[in-house]
Design a protein that fits this description.
Layout: H1 3-22, H2 28-36, E1 45-46, E2 49-54, H3 59-72, E3 77-79, H4 87-97, E4 103-104, E5 108-112, H5 118-121, E6 129-132, H6 140-143, H7 146-158, E7 164-168, E8 184-189, E9 217-223, E10 226-230, E11 243-249, E12 254-257, E13 260-263, H8 269-286, H9 290-297, E14 307-312, E15 315-321, H10 326-338, E16 343-349, E17 377-381, H11 385-394, E18 402-404, H12 411-415, E19 421-427, H13 434-441
Parallel strand pairs: 1-4, 2-5, 2-6, 3-5, 6-7, 7-8, 8-11, 15-19, 16-17, 16-19, 17-18
Antiparallel strand pairs: 9-10, 11-12, 12-13, 14-15
Helix pairs in contact: 1-2, 2-4, 3-8, 3-9, 8-9
């Protein structure tokens, strides 16, 4: 191994150690290592298999679930559990896990990768399995529409013809990746009690067939454009799944995957999908049985940064981290609507913190009108509180149901103007929602 690699890897390890002690991120160490030696990732050698996970929503939780289950089976795993999924974050994860000789001695490398950056990452990282969860309208200023993202993901796959694809048979946009010619494994969810005959979400990105541009037919929808689909004109349809989630019992937090009972700890539709996808990856990549997967999945918990419960003034309070896209926020709204009792929804909306993107037009795609008559209050806070309030007013809400507060220090006072259990839907990049938790959990003086 050459001297440039050793220096870059050592600098990355030292910077990452310091960042960990100081509570910093995982992006900078890898970025500096790449500047010192741009070819640093090409020098790495792997003892095990590489699993990459991407998609508009769910990739952090799903990749961490895969890593957890593999570890439960006794495998050694390296993964970017904090979700730093651009090239620099991947570099930090791999270089910190490698020896100074450039070898990663792990049975599996599980990497969450950004959809648009995957083509750069795959140029240097030889993925063996590539899970694509979904392609939805997400950060349009940065990504464009899902069709453009599809092209970038396909470009990544073209660099790895031996990579096995794990595709969502309920998602008509990403299922087109089967055209790349790689071996494909499919997962899907059967109809659940939450499925609908029409799309109730604020966005629907596949009303027409992506192949022939005639109207697409759906037997049912899970959310947005995910469901059992078929084009009556050209025959493009949901592929027969190799791994099927069925018999979903949301209250009991249980489902069947190919007939095998699996318990989960988080009962959203998103998480049920994530679990079936993770089963497809774990069983295909390692040869474990579904029964073994179920034992591992049972003990997996979503990170507190993404789901947290506590009491505020004796009121049940739940924080749910959502992506900054309509599909994610719509699913959080669906979860809130299923909860019993009087409740308040808090919209904690901040700017996208990286690359100076400050567009919040995606908020107008959220189906806030579904909350009318179902909640006691909607409180808008965060640095885009007023923008969120405008969207909520456009959905038919007026004061006093609508409450807004732009000053974080006055958050407690604003919360006390509301009624019932509190559900904080935090659409805030990179965990900045932690600031609202600090305020709410701080003792009054």
């Amino acid at each position: 191994m050459n001297l440039k690699f050793c220096i870059a890897a050592l600098v990355c390890k030292v910077l990452a150690f310091g960042a960990n002690l100081l509570g910093g991120g995982t992006d900078s160490p890898g970025r500096i290592a790449l500047k010192l030696y741009p070819a640093v990732l090409r020098q790495l050698r792997y003892d095990g298999k590489i699993i990459a996970v991407t998609g508009s929503n769910g990739k952090t939780t799903t990749s961490n679930l895969i890593a957890h289950v593999l570890r439960q089976q006794g495998y050694s795993v390296i993964n970017n559990e904090k979700g730093s999924n651009l090239t620099s974050g991947i570099a930090t994860t791999l270089l910190c896990g490698a020896t100074l000789g450039g070898r990663l001695r792990a049975d599996y490398i599980v990497l969450e990768v950004d959809e648009c950056y995957s083509r750069f990452i795959f140029a240097d990282v030889p993925a063996d399995y590539y899970l694509v969860l979904n392609l939805l309208r997400d950060q349009v200023v940065r990504n464009g529409n899902p069709d453009l993202v599809l092209e970038k993901v396909a470009a990544a796959i073209a660099q790895r013809p031996d990579c096995t694809l794990i595709l969502n048979a309920n998602e008509p946009i990403s299922q087109q990746l089967a055209d790349c010619g790689n071996q494909c494994i499919y997962f899907a969810m059967d109809k659940t009690v939450r499925s609908t005959d029409t799309c109730v979400s604020g966005t629907h990105d596949c009303r027409i067939c992506p192949r022939c541009f005639h109207r697409m037919s759906y037997s049912f929808y899970h959310y947005n454009h995910l469901g059992l689909f078929r084009c009556e004109h050209c025959g493009y349809r949901s592929h027969e799944p190799d791994f099927l989630g069925s018999g979903v019992d949301f209250a009991a937090r249980r489902l069947l995957i190919n007939g095998v009972p699996v318990e989960v700890t988080y009962n959203t539709t998103f998480n049920m999908f994530n679990t079936v996808a993770a089963a497809a990856v774990c069983c295909s990549a390692s040869g474990m049985s579904l029964e073994q997967f179920a034992r591992g999945a049972k003990s997996f918990h979503v990170a507190k940064e993404r789901l947290d419960s506590f009491a505020f003034d004796g009121r049940k309070t739940v924080l749910m981290m959502t992506k900054q896209n309509a599909a994610s926020l719509d699913q959080s709204i669906s979860y809130v609507l299923e909860q019993e009792g009087e409740k308040t929804v808090v919209l904690y909306i901040n700017n996208v913190l990286y690359l100076e993107y400050k567009d919040i037009s995606w908020l107008y795609d959220v189906a806030f009108e579904r909350l009318r008559g179902k909640v006691a209050n909607i409180l808008c806070t965060g640095n885009r509180a007023l923008d969120a309030a405008v969207c909520v007013k456009a959905a038919g809400f007026t004061e006093p149901t609508l409450v807004y507060e732009t000053d974080l220090d006055k958050t407690k006072e604003a919360f006390r103007k509301t009624k019932g259990d509190i559900y904080i839907l935090a659409a805030s990049a990179f965990g900045n929602e932690g600031k609202i938790l600090e305020v709410l959990k701080r003792e009054d003086r």
